[in-house]
Specification:
The complex is a heterodimer of chains A (117) and B (89). Chain A is mostly helical. Chain A is built from three helices and two strands. The termini of chain A are far apart. The chains are: A mainly alpha (117), B mainly alpha (89).
Amino acid sequence: MSLSEIITLVLATIGVVFMLLAAIGMLKLPDLYTRVHATGKAGTLGITGVLLAVAVHHGDLVVAAKMIALIAFFFLTAPVAAHMLDRAAYLTGVKRAPQTVQDDLAGKYDMEQGRLR
Amino acid sequence: MTLFSILIATLMGVVAISMTLCTARLLMGPSIPDRAMAFDTLMLHVVALVALYVVITDQLSLIDAILVVAVLGFLGTVAISRYIEEGRQ
């Protein structure tokens, strides 16, 4: 195996392991808020590793530019999607896990309007 | 097949196992945001699977398909979130 293939394998393995951890966390964690926490971060890091592996393997400028554009897209949109999901869940009253210690948003949301007071 | 393509195919198998776990959450998720989140993660896994397939087969036209799938996954999540949020009591 050449050097670029070894780098490709290492990056892809890191990415796939993080994506597997995201899926396991999504299955095992107790409530929705912690699950979004798991997938929003570990999933983004995992897809970054896999896409960087594709960019390294081809060594083509166009492919690398598309991959970097995709990584930037995921880094911009994954927090937005996670926040919108959490917000919709909080406004519709999804139950928290019983071991939750603190709810900083309690009483600060105007539930009629769906806006912060 | 070279050793490199066999190892990449093994990684694709791991991604497929991970997709199975996401599908389990999609099927049993107690609330609608749970299912929307599982759908978002499933789209992420589709992107990773096709990216690894591009590494093996060198079909560069699939990269544009990856772009479309990524944008569709994000837009789907945002649309479902807005739908849940506007449709509450």
